[in-house]
Amino acid sequence: MEIKEFIEIGERKAGTQKELAKYLNIAASTLRIVKSGRTSLDPAYCIKLARFINKDEIEVIAASRLVTEKDEEKRKIFESCFKRTSQAACIGLVVGLSMILTPSTAQAESLNVAESNTIYIMLYYGRKL
């Protein structure tokens, strides 16, 4: 399933895209961009969405990451998250990536969203700051 489909389920449950965005505590424009396939949704919001629509958290995170992931090896890992037998490995991968790539609270408070996203991208692709 694609992230767009998960978002559409959430929209139906919330009533509107704007209400879903409000529930997730993100801008409606951000949700539109994610739904259009131009970017992925932060793993924390994927988890919140998954819980709201009663779907598997790992599947929603993997669907979101597949939107922008270019590396074939990583794509295969995320795609394997849709198979029940591979979910334990996916949980480890997602938790590990989240711990490495998410700035601490103190760092996040001192960064604006653009800076935070830039750091996330740079760390994700292995570039030094």
Major pleated sheet = none
> Quick one: overall form?
globular
Number of helices: 9
Q: In terms of per-residue confidence, which ranges show pLDDT below 50 for 5 or more consecutive residues? A: 113-129
Give the distance, in angstroms, between the N- and C-terminal Cα atoms. 35 Å
- Radius of gyration computed on alpha carbons: 15 Å
Walk me through this protein's architecture.
The protein is mainly α and 129 residues long. It has one domain (3-124). The protein is 71% helix and 0% strand. The chain has helices at residues 3-14, 17-24, 28-36, 43-53, 57-66, 72-80, 87-101, 105-110, 113-124. Mean pLDDT is 79; it is low at 113-129.
Notable characteristics:
single chain, 129 residues, mainly alpha, 9 helices, 71% helix, 0% strand, globular, disordered C terminus
Topology:
Blueprint: H1 3-14, H2 17-24, H3 28-36, H4 43-53, H5 57-66, H6 72-80, H7 87-101, H8 105-110, H9 113-124
Q: How would you sum up this structure in a few lines?
A:
This protein is mainly α. It has nine helices and no strands.
